[in-house]
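Researcher: Next sequence.
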Amino acid sequence: MFTRQAEATAAAFPVSARILTGNDVRHYPSGQAGMDYSPQQQELHAKWAWYTGSQYAGCRYDWQGAQLGPTNTIAKALVPQSTGVPPGFANMAPPRMAERRPSAPHKLVARVVDRFTSLLFAEDAHPTIRVIGDEDTGHWLQSFASTSRLWARMQMARTIGGAQGTVCLGFRYIGGAPRIEPIDPRWGRPIWLDKEAHTLRALDIRYQVPVVVKRNKRTQPEQVSYWMRRLISDQAEIWYKPVFCSEFPAVQLEDGTRVEEGNGQEPEWRNLIDEERSVRHDLGFCPVVWLQNLPSHESPYGRSDCDGLYEQALDLDRLRAGISMACGANMDPSFVIESGDGVFPQTLRKGTGNGIGLMTGNKAYYVEIGGAGIKIAMDHFKEARDSFFEEAECLESFTRSGGPPQTAYEVGAKLGPQQSKVSALREQYGQLGVRRLLDMAMRAARILEARGESVLLEPRIVKPEEDGETETVEPVRLGPEGSYLDVSWPPISRPTSTEVQAAVTAAAAAVQGGVLDQKTVTKFVAPFFGVDDLNALQARMEKAAEERKTEQEALQQGSGLPGAGGGAPKPPGPPKPPAAQPQ
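Model: Next structure:
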């Protein structure tokens, strides 16, 4: 299917061949494979580190200035500063604050990202998929979402996008079953078909994998890295064989992966195509969605949830570490003995079972700190933390006041900035994310079915319409092309039971008082009960009213009494004689 010749590859995959043979393929101008990533990739790395809590992995000292171990594990000091300077060594200046790792990082960035992810794709928050006028396609999409675990994958994608500002969503059909793959943008290099619309022609995915391996049986294990690379284009998905980044012989790893020999230069990728894993799909479009978390007009890479707030997060971590160190250093009270000679007994023992003998006029007592400075620092930390969440538009502490339940209007007034940000995120991940992905999935499924290949989806569960019936399953199928796909979200804030009751009471009073008609009142009350199709609700209500009217007319005509079998009631018979009384 594939060839290692660049010219033949160019005939089959023009985009792939251009990437393989062009000068712009090299990630590094010098051709050295061991250099760092591009500036854009380094920025994405830094943002992701703030989410995972590894932003201080490069700090060589703990918060008290002690040097960390060679693996930079937390609080594993080699030589604490309190041990003094060994003979023959110079007393070095204490490390700068930027080189110290805060001892109590707060993970504020992860808290903000996870909060918005739950607001978008939690179990009761993700959007619903509808196809207007095509019930078959609607059932097919529901089954596709269930089979591919769409919403769980969207949670993962939203976490990557919220932390870094951009995420890629790809899909494949493996053996007919759909798979959705969130792709980390740190490893991807986009090749645009329409840069303004963020439509990809191809995505070059390339990253390094560290591994500890021996050169041969006689050498010690070394930590080296090897390249993993694949190219997803509008014609094929090309996988390349793993190859070492530095000069290292070919090795078979313990997990069965064979890594090809590296020479420290840019690999000859045209000779490294993995023909067994590569697939030519000929879909005519790249099955990857490039998605910005929050839109940015300056770059295809969008904005993360905490852009512009990383310095504040750093200051809060340092402030919290200082508070923690101050509390730890002053936790034990100091023992004081007032004596005339001012000498502290060397054999003094404190605690239960130990006595202290004092001369006349001498005193022994503990001195404890008042902690005023620590309290001020803690108050400042709380205010700075609240300010961080406020500027991140993540106001999740509005219910901590302990007061009475708040109405939806009060909640909306307090959470206005957060709801505005959620609305922007819904537009990005709904219309530009889920909808585009499902459109591509349907196009690909129709192309595969036209070739005689099948798409395997979970069957649809049909609920019983009447009591006594059991659930059944039926296969799903795509309807005709041209149907309209709608992705609709539930309300951001839900009304309380008190608000629902008050709305229903007011609506009933308005109808009885003749102020409003039934249709207007129904339109007012419907959102409180989660009704989005007002016309269908109105039709059902009119049908039910018509049925009740028919039943009432039948009863008035005497043709529908229960148990009478229809017709007029029987006339009363002659009166029975009174029963005989006992003598």
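Model: The chain has 13 helices and 21 strands. Residues 559 and 566 are 5 Å apart (CA to CA).
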